[in-house]
Amino acid sequence: MVLKEIDSKQFRDMVRVATHRMGKNAEFVNSLNVFPVPDGDTGTNMNLTIESGAKAVSENPSDSVGDLTESLAKGMLMGARGNSGVITSQLFRGIYKATQGMKTLNAQELANAFTNGVATAYKAVMKPVEGTILTVARVAAQEGANKASETEDVEAVMKAIVEGAKKALKTTPDLLPVLKQVGVVDSGGQGLLFIYEGFLEGLLGENFADQYQPDESEMDEMINAMHHQSSVQSQLATEDIINGYCTEIMVDLTADVPDKKPFELEEFRKHLSGLGDSLLAVSDGEVAKVHVHTEHPGEVFQYGSKFGQLGKIKIDNMRIQHETIVESDEDKQETVDFAVIAVASGNGIRKLFESEGVNRIISGGQTMNPSAGDIIEAIKKSGAKKAIILPNNGNIIMAAKQAAEVSDIPVGIVPTKTISQGLTAMLSFDPDSSVDENVEMMTEDIDSVVSGEVTQANRDTVIDDIEIHNNDYLGIVDGNIRVDNPDLIKATVQMIEKMLDEDSEIITIMYGRDSNKSEAEEVVAQLEESHDDLEFEIHDGGQPVYNFLVSVE
Description:
The protein has 553 residues and is α+β, with helices and mostly antiparallel strands. It has helices at 8-24, 26-30, 42-58, 65-79, 82-99, 107-124, 133-148, 154-175, 177-182, 187-204, 216-227, 230-233, 265-273, 297-304, 318-330, 347-355, 372-382, 397-406, 419-426, 435-446, 488-499, 517-528; strands at residues 5-6, 105-106, 245-252, 276-283, 287-294, 309-317, 338-344, 360-363, 386-390, 411-413, 450-456, 461-463, 466-468, 473-477, 480-485, 506-511, 535-540, 548-552. The chain contains 22 helices and 18 strands.
């Protein structure tokens, strides 16, 4: 039987299954990162982006597909994180524009929508690169258009779109040499394929009838929602928090452990509820995930280990977090004429930006990309009449631009890709100049600084003829891996040596939460032996991911 149109119920199913499929495979997409370092987490970003869109669809009671594609696009725009998430949101913005006012979609209209989505996504990227998510979207849409010229069957068109995406994904290593060098396909393209496969499954009704527990990513969203009630938390005194440790565990129920107990979810939940509050416990039969607020995290770990092997574990001190929320809440009413908003992580880094005149800090950076909605919210809370955004990460620039486009006030983006560039750009900020003048002046300055980052490799590989070993320290200069060394101090010294030229004068070293001041001082001592003409500054950055952030000016 030929299905000639997609109605609102079928479209809701497509979105729901696609979101679930993306969530189930987010970690696999993350694993395709080219660099052997903590990256922007493409899978996580795409998952959170489509989840935001799916939520908007679920809240829209309309029986018109055109209305639902509008909700999907707007929800994804607000939730877009990272370059892959922004491109995906633009793809669905184009789909919405092509389906406005349509109650249902026939085969040709479906194909046209995907074609328009591709055109919109390409326009959103200043310099489109083939071998990426754009290639996968383009070839998929072309295959859909070809099939729509032959049949009225919307299922056949959606199948062609999926097959086109699969075909294009296989070609990405041939189009982008770095992918072939590392031996992976493009992560954004893989994520898009999962979304398209979910659309097809939802349309066909496959894997949809069964009810499922929330998966890991969905549970993370539930947890995040619980923890972002800042306005409520700020009314509570820190000392009144009864269960102070936010504790999370994952249990591999398939693993053999001594004296293993049979797993029953309700009994599992019942016992954990006695150890604390704010309990969330879910399982798909193979993995159990737990979130609970408790005073005794060790008891949670011990109990979970009776049913299988513990995987990811996490403990956060909520009393410290609450103090931060209260401090943040105190300045919510502050308004300025011209705001500078920076993305940063680490208390020391935040203080450095604030000392240079930044009005608001959005918590985030590498592995923690804020959404376009987060940036829009920061703009609104500033109360400013105009604003400048410092993304300080290449994977956040597109989300910042997307936020600027829908902001109610003039917003300029200075395309800073590192913390060092952001701090340097602030030296040229002039509150008496216009947004455009500040963007021009601040952008000119970011080229005057060389940025270095030291972090640990998370796998063995070869990049640009540099043999990289898991857990070695990597020296990254302006986005390129230049050093691999098992010794942190040696790796940092070698990296800084590669950053220097005859005009270098000042070296600023910011040590992260996994390093300390004495290690930074040892780096300086070794460099001073051969560079007595250089000036050094050391700061406690407190940043995650990077042992050291270094700027050379």
